Amino acid sequence: MKHSISVQNDVVLVVVSEKANPEGYSLAARDIVNLPEWKTGMKILIEYSHLDLSSLASADAPLYAKAIVPYKEAMGSGRMACVNSKPAYFGMGRMWQVSMEAFTDLQVGIFYTMEEAMSWLSEPDQPK
């Protein structure tokens, strides 16, 4: 799994690609919290339309969420929006959302478009 990370207007943008694996999720989380610009609770936008989830089942979602747990404290309670326009992958994203919200303090949203994701990220935070 590959990822690229940038910061634009106080939002961390992560683009992930190739075959998904828990180690790749963990490395991406590590790289996010190690950014010089990182502040606990920053908003995160993940573009995963190019990520290959074809070998995953919904039962795998907790494995991917647990891979991020070592960075739970550093990530804080911010918002993480994930974008994928493929209906089957969108459903997998929803399963991952449930696991992420169970294992971390993040508020996670799954969206079909970048516009929807950015709109949600700009809304005021809701208590968890």
How would you characterize the overall build of this protein?
By secondary structure, this protein is α/β, with parallel strands linked by helices. Helix content is 38%, strand content 28%. It has 5 helices and 5 strands. The chain has helices spanning 22-33, 61-66, 72-75, 87-103, 114-122, and strands at 2-8, 11-19, 43-52, 79-83, 107-111. Strands 1-2-3-4-5 form a 5-stranded mixed sheet, with helices on both faces.
Tags for this model:
128 residues, alpha/beta, 5 helices, 38% helix
Instruction: Please count the helical segments.
Output: 5
Sheet with most strands: 5 strands, mixed
Distance between the termini: 30 Å
Count of DSSP E strands? Answer: 5
Beta-strand percentage?
Answer: 25-35%
Strand order of the largest sheet: 1-2-3-4-5
**Rg from Cα:** 13 Å
Instruction: Provide the residue-averaged pLDDT.
Output: 92
Quaternary: single chain
**Secondary-structure element string:** EEHEHHEHEH
Shape: globular
- Which structural class do the helices and strands define? alpha/beta
Residue share in helix: 25-40%
Q: Low-confidence spans: pLDDT under 50, at least 5 residues?
A: none
